[in-house]
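Saturday, quiet lab. Running sequence design on the structure tokens for the scaffold JK sent over.
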């Protein structure tokens, strides 16, 4: 099944804009009918706005469908879940994510969405010419107690995404719950051909390796995900290891949204899986050179259809790509960014809250949050919620934050109306004001 999808994607990447759009609205027809019949939120929306789903299915009428915001997703809850699924779309798995703006939402995945996730992962490897016989190292969130330092985890292949396409080289995984120094030591030991990690962790690693003179002689290419990649990090990696970085743009609830072009540093939208609009303040489509809100429609998620979902990121639209692919171009994305926390002693850690369904954190009435390290002795949590947390809830949150930064530091809570973006438009979920080594370079305005 993966092979067939990959063959199709091989062709569709070269389709012209009109043909891609026609394909997308063709995919949307059965999805909209399904949403109207099986998803309470959409049944009500179509009824209240007197919308006939069939009449929305063209580039000229699509804008009539009201946008779905993150707070609407939070309010709708299971009303956005399908009551019955077509064959092949079960079993459903659930995930909780803070997304790009620190507003936790639940999302649902199916065998079809994970097939697309695997296919886009392989597409990314192929676009960037990665040799599948090489060794791939990944430093990412693994849950607690898995792939911990100093040894991490070695596995016989690159993981589930590439398992169906034949033999790959070894895979090595290290939990992001490790310090920058531990990551550098581990990488030095495993000496991989490819590295996959978050931009903020990569930046700290490259700085550390430059200071310590770690060369990683086998390294050929780095793949980043999950946060905004500053151009300065590309430069840093060229200087320290003489390798290029290929960025990806994905979210837990939508899957892959865009991948970096094989020949250029901008991104191509994954139009076979998502219909992406970039809209200005008046909800009109942005032209090349303009920056607007990213609004996404997932074409293959029948368990939790997201139609015109404003995910909370901003992007700049690019000109058509000289590589010849018809897939639309994003010049750059302004989404989530994060700073590493500085531990007493100066080592750095990549903070992450464990937002799984099983944690008590999932029960708290928090709509959005930002966690700021203001000194080596204090962390401040800014919270948007319809009520203040009780003392007990605050202590649950404090413990989770202390786990996230791997340090039992006092946490002070502030209740606020909204959490602003940084001056460069990025949303900072975790911020450290101790910026001696982790200053973030602003992308060109
Ligand atoms: Zn291109």
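Result came back. Writing it out in full:
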């Amino acid at each position: 099944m993966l092979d067939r999808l990959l063959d199709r994607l091989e062709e569709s990447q070269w389709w012209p804009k009109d043909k891609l759009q026609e394909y997308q609205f063709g995919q949307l027809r059965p999805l909209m009918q399904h949403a109207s019949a099986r998803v309470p939120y959409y049944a009500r929306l179509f009824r209240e706005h007197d919308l006939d789903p069939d009449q929305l299915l063209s580039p000229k009428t699509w804008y009539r469908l009201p946008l779905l915001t993150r707070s609407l997703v939070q309010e709708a809850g299971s009303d956005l879940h399908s009551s019955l699924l077509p064959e092949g779309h079960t079993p459903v798995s659930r995930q909780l994510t803070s997304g790009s703006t620190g507003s936790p939402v639940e999302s649902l995945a199916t065998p079809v969405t994970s097939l697309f996730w695997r296919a886009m992962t392989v597409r990314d490897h192929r676009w960037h010419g990665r040799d599948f016989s090489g060794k791939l190292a990944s430093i990412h969130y693994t849950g607690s107690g898995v792939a911990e330092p100093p040894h991490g985890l070695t596995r016989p292949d690159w993981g589930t995404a590439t398992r169906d396409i034949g033999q790959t080289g070894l895979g090595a995984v290290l939990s992001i719950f490790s310090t920058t120094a531990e990551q550098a030591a581990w990488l030095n030991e495993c000496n991989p051909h490819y590295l996959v990690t978050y931009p903020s962790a990569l930046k700290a690693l490259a700085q550390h390796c430059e200071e310590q003179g770690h060369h990683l002689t086998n390294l050929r290419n780095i793949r980043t995900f999950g946060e905004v990649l500053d151009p300065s990090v590309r430069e840093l990696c060229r200087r320290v290891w003489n390798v290029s970085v290929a960025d990806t743009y994905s979210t837990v609830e939508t899957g892959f949204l865009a991948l970096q072009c094989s020949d250029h540093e901008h991104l191509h939208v994954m139009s076979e899986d998502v219909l992406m609009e970039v809209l200005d303040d008046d909800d009109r489509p942005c032209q090349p050179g303009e920056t607007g809100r990213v609004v996404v429609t997932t074409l293959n998620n029948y368990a939790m259809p997201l139609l015109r979902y404003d995910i909370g990121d901003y992007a700049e639209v690019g000109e058509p790509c000289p590589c010849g692919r018809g897939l639309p171009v994003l010049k750059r994305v302004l989404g989530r960014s994060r700073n590493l926390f500085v531990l007493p002693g100066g080592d750095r850690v990549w903070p992450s809250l464990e937002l799984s369904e099983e944690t008590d954190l999932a029960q708290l009435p928090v709509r959005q949050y930002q966690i700021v390290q203001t000194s080596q002795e204090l962390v401040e949590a800014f919270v948007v919620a319809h009520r203040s947390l009780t003392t007990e809830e605050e202590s649950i949150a404090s413990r989770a934050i202390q786990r996230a930064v791997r340090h039992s530091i006092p946490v002070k809570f502030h209740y606020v109306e909204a959490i602003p973006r940084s001056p460069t438009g990025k949303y900072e979920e975790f911020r450290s004001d101790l910026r001696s080594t982790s200053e973030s370079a602003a992308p060109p305005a």
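Notes for JK: The longest strand covers residues 366-375. The chain has nine helices and 21 strands. Ask whether to fix the surface positions before the next round.
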